[in-house]
Fold each of these.
Amino acid sequence: MLALCDLRVSYGAIEVVHGISLDVAAGECVALIGANGAGKSSTLKAICGLVPVGSGSVQFEGRDITNASGHAIVRAGITMCPEGRQVFPQMSVIQNLRMGAYTRTDKDQDADLVRMMDMFPILRERQTQAAGKLSGGEQEMLAIARALMARPRICLFDEPSLGLAPKIVASVFETLAQIKAMGMTILLVEQNSMMALNLADRAYLFEAGKIVMQGPAKELKSHPDVMRAYLGH
Amino acid sequence: MLIEILQQTINGLAIGGVYVLIALGLTTVFGILGIAHFAHGSVSMFGGYLTFFLVTSQGLPVLVAIPIALVVGFLLGLLIEIIAYRPVRDANHINAFIVALGLTMMVEGINLQMFGHEQVVIPTGLSRVFRLGGVTVPELRIYVIIAAIVLVAAMMLFVERTKTGQAIRAVAENRDAAILMGVNVKSIPLIVFGISTSLGVAAGIMVGALFAIAPGIGEGFVVKGFAVLILGGLGSFPGAILGGTVLGITESIAAGFISSAYKDVIAFVVMILVLLIRPQGLLGRSP
């Protein structure tokens, strides 16, 4: 469904992703794990068109979307739930959710809004409040719901557990498992490797802008190097 | 005394409406692009001059000339975005600042070349005056106040109730997140400049009908427009509306009770006092 081939990403003169290739099949949940600064988030941003691709290609459902503009990529069916939530702080919860459906013109948007609030009851309680007034965990739920409002074909999650209390992290991952069970194709970037490997079908391990290991999540979880370096065993 | 206050409040509402329309344009542009669009006043006055020209030289009825001027204003806004501000979009903010100053001088020059240095008044033919219990209300003022309310309400509805309006807010609040929602962030500034300039032209027409347009008037109004933004709280729509109304009424009351020569001084003194107590503006959020 989504295939990156020899992707390179630079910020100015500094290259942070040194030619990575990976793919995500329809219905799959793939995790990118690794230390802070390994290039995982930059990879996601390059897929979404937020940072330019230096070289290499991004293919989505057989179409080349390398360096397409961000809004065209969303219309193609790729939605990202960004790092640090990035809700629209002064807009209400409802308005944030509706922004998620910005590219849609169908009649089911209201029904989806109700569905999201069924899935996240806290958003119904807070529907008229400004999103900036929500707690970190609530904002994360809002960001996830907002991403789903686009009815994406693949949903990218960038560090959904970052900066949240452990209890909230657990509920975020429960939510992700729920979304996965709905059949959503997921590409997840996480520093919380244990949680990510428990959820994902497959995973790629990033180190300094390169993929150093890949395989089924179960195998990576029991690999001695991964256990030592990332899982704290 | 009470009648005099009422009288000046009505006068103030009319001029306040003009301030609000100019400030709404400035605040939307500032919110999206972080640009202090100084040329806005001169462009607005261009719209007033254009209406005057259409009515007097072309013999069009005022009610035909006004929509034409508003549409021309919209197109002018698009042109300004594409020619003047888009090239400096990703550059340092000082570049846009210089472009804004240059554009102001250019538009002032164009106004002078095209319409001359004489002051002009748009002939509306609305000369009836109502007397309501001692308060004198010229018909024209009522229409100006109503038109301002309708335009402001339309702008609020557009921003709050339409997808494009929400996208404008979203870009102002978080540009990257707006891209992730599928907003085309290149087209948003175009829409913003089109609408803002159209609102500005409406204000220019009101100035031309209520008072007079002359070279330099536009610059005065843009300064007031920014004063309104600061008074109401930067980036706040309700703030711009409240700020413009407060400034208009304060000015009128000052002119009526003290002296019209001091009205600007008093208006800015009030602004300074408000900012001493509420540095974030009347409806601005505390930093």
Amino acid sequence: MVHPLERKRDVTQGRSKSVSLRAVAVGLLSGALLACSGGTRHDKRTLAGDSHVGRVPGRVVVDFRDGTSPAVLAERAAAWGVSLRFNSLVGPDDGVALADNVADVEALLRTIRQSPDVEAAEPLLTYEAQGFTPNDPEYSKQWNLRLIGMPDAWEMSRGKGVIVAVLDTGVAYETKGPFVRVPDLKGVRFVAGYDFVHDTDHPNDDNGHGTHVAGTIAQATNNNEGVAGIAFEATLMPIKVLDASGSGNSADIADGIRWAVDHGAKVLNLSLGGFGYSRVIENAVAYARLHGAVVVAAAGNHGAGTVAYPAAYAGAIGVGAVGPDGTRTPYSAWGAQLDLLAPGGDKRRGEEGGILQATIARGEPGKAVYASYQGTSMATPHVAGVAALLFAAGAKTPDEVERALYAGASGGGGWNAQRGHGLLDAAGALRALGAKTKVDWQPLAASAAILLLLLLSLNPKVRPGGVLNVLLDPKLLLPLLVSSVGFFVLRVVWQKWVGSPPAVVDALSLPLPDWERIVFGRGRLAHPLFYSALIPLMVALPAVAWKGFRPVAAGIALGFAGFLAYAAWTRAPGLSWLPFSVLALPWLVANAVACAVLARALLSRREKAA
Amino acid sequence: MKLKGRVTFEDLGAGAWVLEAEDGKRYELRGVEGGKLSEGARVEVEGDLDAGAVSTAMAGPALRVKRWSPR
């Protein structure tokens, strides 16, 4: 018989053990959640750009103590058997000197580093800007192009042969009557466009806005003049749908969209917007998309959480604006239909905070100038330009372009209403186009953490075993994988053996909650019933009678729990009909909990124990 | 509709005159010549909302002005 005191000690030990196990579980869960939150941090990119570092053979830089005299320098040079000289006029102050014609750099460095006069010594390094740097003299003022990684992107694509339609106030592309072609568009390829405002074949610009926008897309670049553009080997199609005051109507815009698509445009730039819904324009956007063209539109400058039309229509890429610091500007709209952020400028810091391109003086179509503009109008052509780079680099469909834009965007962590998929990154998008499918494993980590918590919460008598035992049971693991990270093998295999996967294969390789896209098609918002405990509950019904099916149902429920918890954590994607903070977040959390409770019930071996 | 407020030129896109109305909303003004408005002027405007209007400034719903007067 066990002494009562000993039994008490056992109980205490048991409790303290379970307490410490719970602490471990909580630690693991918070670790998993922290890993998930890693994606939401803001990615600060330096404006200086990346640089290549190289060693100069036979040369060594020596940093002597500050104030080292030339006499000491000469003495050391003689002792080490090298020629030493100060690097510049500040050498006697900062002590930086160079050794030339060194036969064995490493041996010399070992010797030098033992000298008490020396603070540091290393091989001479060279730094050079990476990627393509155009020779346009004002390029240094284009912070916006460096912010989106253009020097690297230009090494991969320059948009050759892709037709980009600029639906705007026209473009200063020809010298005719009162109009001039701005010099920094000389050499840029154009195809015939149309003026829907005056119904003529000469869509010249009587405002300045359209020419500025066209410049961001395809300014003549590396021509020793003015500024650079993003897709400078692309072909521009000027379509005038806005009058001299910069405003227009839905009929002209819808006509312009269809005309551009019918005449071969692959990318349509709409740096315009309004606040009234127009079925006519929405249909035109759908027509463009259906015919393989990407429609990029401005989110609006009203600074509110609603996106203007046409950016808000399904099928359009809605673009908000950031300033030189990479954060969204106060004027930029945001909200459920926001897709990307791109540089739009912030002139509260002066003209240099805006976007600089060649255009005509406002209201003076005969006078070419360089002007700094700001607005989501300016952010939009950055995305249109990169879309052209993607088409030129081999993207076949608007879906492919869109996927690469979003996958390459910086900021990570999926979509949210404040910044869409993140800040446009041209080089990132081009790399994403060539990259293999990325699988998001974080929901699986969340599922595993939830499983651990569930097992710990179960009485040991009905606990089905350790985490690994449960997790590695294929009957549970496969459904868990399919519902949390997706049947990604299908897509990988398809890509390897068949080619670019069709939409159905794409959808099937997504996590189970995202299979709604097979039913409802692509969209930015997820269906609340798919993002709920409904599917796990339906799957669990047969498991009431059929015990052998329980691990499968438990796997699905666990996968959903992890997936929904992760969706709630990253606040992405938004749900149809539910405003995120008020309804969608509680919805996701409640359903994640419901899935976890369901999984717990399915895992419990209560009946066996009884 | 009749609105009272303050006019300001917004340097967004191609730029636009905006009425910061006393009801707290912002309207992009159409059909007024910019030369006759001055920054910060208080005005009384009579006009109609133009739901189908589209612009580069995108600063707010478009108000097609019929009459306006300084206050």
